[in-house]
Design a protein that fits this description.
Number of strands: 11
Order of helices and strands: EHEEHEHEEEHEHHEEEHHH
Strand content: 15-25%
Radius of gyration: 18 Å
Mean pLDDT: 96
CATH class: Alpha Beta
Distance between the termini: 23 Å
Number of domains: 1
Helix content: 25-40%
CATH architecture: 3-Layer(aba) Sandwich
Strand order of the largest sheet: 3-2-1-4-5-8-9-10-11
Bound molecules: 3-hydroxy-5-(hydroxymethyl)-2-methylisonicotinaldehyde
CATH superfamily: Ribokinase
């Protein structure tokens, strides 16, 4: 049976309520016109950022048998994109899946979703950071925020007030891990602008895209960003154009959410979806 490999796989948890991880990745990458297969690493009642008493059903034990079935069936993916992973074992399994199930020129996209605002998410420790740094070293494209980058390379976390030498230091050390392209999010050199650094570790070419800084901090925006970026790259956009579109989309989703105090747990990406439909309205 011949099965098209014109599809991608994303591995991350399902947080049933909370607008992050798979409940964000699946609709956003699909809206870019890309067939999106999923491998849920865990099921949580909500995400861990601000809720208490959430349930957590670990699905690690099922991961390799799912991969075995896909391999036996001849299923391959043009990209594997990982987000929140719950343990070092899940990182190892994701690396194995990339080795076994990617097409020859398939892309390894890793969002080391484990920290923000200077702190690790609940449940992670230094050992996990080390494993994630090693995993990022094998990736084609990584999308850390400043917190994740500083943790992975052992640099001090700086929220603001730094200059380009701090950012360059992070980028070069991330490159030394082995990653080919780094999209560093949450970069700021002024009070009113926030943006991303796009760094090619081979050529050492560094570009930025800045947008207006919004005065709200929102949950799940890293997942929104990485998902739109992945969809856009898979639709043939350059890394820079994908990074820019993902930033514009994320800003729009935050704008659509601002002012709704009951919606602190995520962003209303649904309201920004027309942007993607318009951008990718021709079939893949
Ligand atoms: O948005 C990242 C994320 C994904 N999944 C879970 C999380 C978080 C962040 O807190 O808790 C379960």
């Amino acid at each position: 049976m011949n099965i098209s490999s014109d599809k991608i796989l994303t591995i991350q948890d399902i947080s049933c309520v909370g607008q992050c991880s798979l409940t964000v990745a699946l609709p956003l990458i699909s809206a870019c016109g890309i067939e999106t297969c999923i491998l849920p690493s865990a099921v949580l009642s909500t995400h861990t950022g601000g809720f208490s008493g959430y349930t957590f059903r670990d699905l690690t034990d099922g991961i390799l048998s799912i991969a075995d079935h896909w391999e036996q069936t001849g299923i391959k993916f043009r990209a594997v994109y990982t987000g929140y992973l719950g343990s070092a074992k899940q990182i190892a399994y994701s690396a194995d899946i990339m080795d076994r199930l990617l097409t020859e020129d398939g892309l390894r996209i890793v969002d080391p979703a484990m920290a923000d605002n200077g702190r690790l998410y609940y449940g992670f420790d230094d050992e996990f950071v080390k494993e994630m740094a090693h995993f990022c070293g094998k990736a084609d494209i990584i999308l850390p925020n400043i917190t994740e980058a500083s943790l992975m390379v052992g640099e001090e976390y700086k929220q603001a007030g730094y200059d380009e030498s701090y950012v360059l230091g992070l980028l070069e050390k991330l490159g030394a891990l082995g990653a080919k392209t780094v999209i560093l999010t949450g970069v700021t050199y002024s009070d009113d602008k926030l943006g991303v650094a796009v760094y090619d570790t081979n050529s050492r070419k560094l570009d930025y895209y800045f947008h207006d800084r919004l005065k709200v901090s929102s949950h799940g925006t890293g997942d929104v960003y990485a998902s739109v970026f992945t969809g856009a790259v898979m639709r043939g956009r350059s890394v820079y154009d994908a990074a820019k579109l993902a930033a514009d989309f994320t800003v729009e989703a935050i704008r659509q959410t601002a002012g709704d105090e009951g919606h602190w747990y995520g962003v209303k990406f649904e309201k920004a979806l027309p942007m993607l439909i318009k951008e990718f309205d021709t079939p893949a």
